[in-house]
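Suppose you are handed a protein chain with no further information: no name, no annotation, nothing but its sequence. What can you learn? This example shows the usual starting point.
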Amino acid sequence: MKTVRMTLQPDLRERREAFGMAGVWNLWKNPKTDHYEQTFAILTGGPNEILRPIHDRMTTILEPHDYAEYLAPSERPPLHLLRILPADEMHVTPVTTPSTTTRRNLL
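A reasonable first move is to predict its three-dimensional structure. Written in structure tokens, the prediction is:
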């Protein structure tokens, strides 16, 4: 059996409205250097039907009308706002390895 490597990249150009990716940010003091450092992470969830064959998770999406509530201080995180982009809102296009590498950006 021959294995073919294919990278799939969501093509969101046809989606007319903007959306945000849910994430967290923190400023903390590194005890080893005594300097303040910024850290962040993008939140992920289980994949939709399109991405499931190639990855076990995908970025969680925030709709523009949910930005204010997501960013507002609260006692509990607004997890109810996090969602996975449904497969029917995605168009996936196969891309070759050279188009997914940053190496050529350095030349």
